[in-house]
Amino acid sequence: MIDLSVKLGNLDLKNPIVAAGGPLAGTVEHIKDCVDAGLGGIVTKTTSTVWYLQRYPKPLYSLLDYKKDKMKPYNTPDSYFWMHREHNSCYPPLQFAKIIEEASPYAKKHNCAIIGNFSARTIEEWEEIAIAYEKAGCDALELNFCCPFPPDGLTKSELDLNIGIHYTKNPHEAVKVLKHIRSIVNIPLFVKMSPDGSNFKEVCKLFEEAGADGVTMFANNKTLRVDIETGKPNIYGFAPGTGPGLKALSMRWTAEIAGECNIAVMGNRGLSTWQDAVEFIMSGASAVQYCTPIMIRGLGYVKELLDGIEGFMKRKGYDSVNDFKDMALNQIYTNQELVDKVKPLYAKVRPDKCIGCKRCIEVCWYDALAFGQKAGVIKKNCAGCSLCSQVCPVDAIEMIERDNELEHFQAMSSAHPELAPEDFWPKGL
Question: Which residue, 85, 225, 349, 398, shows the most beta carbons closer than 10 Å to its own?
């Protein structure tokens, strides 16, 4: 029996797939629909205490690099970029607590965790909402230290700027909020981070010390795309954006935080497929959040994600998620380990497979490939970068370990040996 359950800090989830804060969970019925879809947890739509964020920006979505197929209307490409203008919930936080209160018994009945997401300006506001959300039945809170971005020109006071991303950029103020909320509620606390911040390891350590049970890496950040036919910015200018291409950066920080801090990490931003969930979990994530992919594909996609993970686990012989959790995290090399453990390589062409397309020669930047009827490698020039083997359409190139590093250094400097460090080449060359 495959066990998809995970431990998210002190929170138990029946599976690692969590709906990220957004339109997926903005009403009672939508929350119930998410529960029925089989999600392990649901982060509610962000609420905030600033008037304009309950009204603006007007919702507007833009799918870019999205190849449609009229013969397959339900086909969704794996590659796309999503930009949006999305206000926080139009309901003030204390009103939204009534939505949570109505939906939470249904979620609890079906073993689905409700994680209340909100942002506020003052300690008093943070406290009032946290208490209301816990009382309404939230199983955990996600303090939104990223969204919203205070829109320029719409603020009525300086206080209105102390919202959302303000706390990622001013982590010591965020710590005060965390410590206070930790002192007044008993449920787990998670922090949603902005990729527009910095010093994430140091900041997450501060959050850990302040009582956070985990962090979410990341919400979206401001992006820009332009229509080159008209010269107009997509959806009028800077707007939050995400897409599969951003997965690698989010995963990098997921791994760094998971490796340095004793708090749970939820991977977010850039996930699209079930394979992405496995990658994040292998890289240290305790759970993963999806919003855009589910919005594009519909709630039925949740079952595809879960079936994909379960099928992968059966194929690999894994009984539980813990069997592959942190697998990659525990194999990330330090710089010293790269020096000590990774041997230099050189390329070798298999003539029986080579089709003479010359693709490899076009990408060799070390002048290590020659061509007759078939490709051939000049071993003394080959730096072992492996690019040729990766573009070869018939996998005719294999990479071989070198016997010693000196040959490798000499290959790297073969174009100008007289300019290389002295220990690369014998004196006089």
Answer: 349
